[in-house]
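As promised in the previous annual report, we have extended the structural survey to additional targets. Below is the entry for Amidohydrolase.
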Amino acid sequence: MAGYLLKNCAAVIVDEGNGPVVHRNVDLLTSGPAIVAIGGNLGADALPAGTILEDAAGWFVYPGLVNTHHHFFQCFVRNRADLDWTKLSVIEWLDRIYPIFSQLNEECFYHSSVTAMAEMVKHGCTTAFDHQYNFPRHAGKRLIDRQFEAAELLGMRFHAGRGGNTLPKSEGSTIPDEMLETTDEFIADCARLIDTYHDTSPYSMRQVVVAPCQPVNCYRETFVESVALARDRGVMMHSHVGEGESPVIQARHGMRTVDYLEELGFAGPDAFYAHCWELTHDELRKMAASGTGVAHCPEPVYLVGAEVTDIPAMAAFGLRVGLGCDGAASNDNSNLMHCLHSAYMLQCLVSSSRAHPVPPPVDFLGYGTTGGASLLGRRDIGRLAPGMAADLFAIDTRRMDYVGTRHDPLSLIARVGIGMATDMTMINGRIVWQKGEFPGLDEAKLAADAEAALSAVEF
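The corresponding structure token record, generated without further manual editing, is:
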């Protein structure tokens, strides 16, 4: 793979391990999958053969965003008035949404993954974690295989969360029988995916996470076996936690969710939970002490009407925090850049009711980059520095949208927001989006194929 020289960048957000710093009027050189150098006048000497020159005048160059929670398949239930959270109770909503999910077929899972990842790439996301917990029996077991296929098509760095549900609705879950698996089925397919796809080499593009859907929809043994497999294979663990289920877990097991999962061993530096908006400060402190991370999804707050997650407390207690889009059932877009802005603005909205101050805007950029990399157990992504993966995006700030903002690139995304696609997105040293196009791909055909797959299913 050839390298690129991004020449005359107006600003590059550099982080050599001590936090982000703005470097003005510099060049950025890549070779293969990695960043080689960031500095002034890099093209003065002979460049490596095959290096491609990109005029980056006016560009602010940021580390690629890292998504830590999503449900790609839900892209096929976006913008539906009959599933409006504001008109339904949670139970009514679940009773409507899960039967719809259970009708999706293999092609739907593939094309919804292309749809979600394409939107993410356009808006600067270079690493995507997806929590794929929906395995209708008629759709088969190769749904995550198709997700890896979609990621390869778009050039996306992909971490697949193999989810699953094992507790029947008759025993207190919200899951239709069509979507249920046994614990043995779930664990066996997790092992298959790890053996087939999990790559721990530097700049890996494919990894697997053991991710039972949530404690309320799984047997205890499902989580016990998940811990055993993940620790044996050295992979990360993930689940939904702290989104209103703690009283149910208390009634079933005599303790709230955080204590329950810690007792089972589903906690620690190799585990991260999605949401966590209902957790007490004592529970957050316990997670910080164990090293368990949080994938914060700000935008569902608008639709679900739940509490605004206490990010200031999490920051004060030292929790590892990343950002996620969440699925389209509770967030109708896959724009992690927009989520970064929403996360900051929501905290400002409720700041007067919080015991701890809102972190500065630059910290929210960190949640979307280095924070996400930490949750996924990656040390080679999430920041721009020599030796790191060449995952980045560029915004041409020579537009009216940015007049008066260019003095502070670190706060720009969180505080001002970015209302358009990036001018360029690079993943692993390859340009995957530039000048409004996916190089080598026909976006109109991708969209038409996805619409056809959706229309073939009768909801």
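The chain has a mean pLDDT of 95. Residues 106-122 form the longest helix (17 residues). These points will be discussed at the next consortium meeting with the crystallography subgroup.
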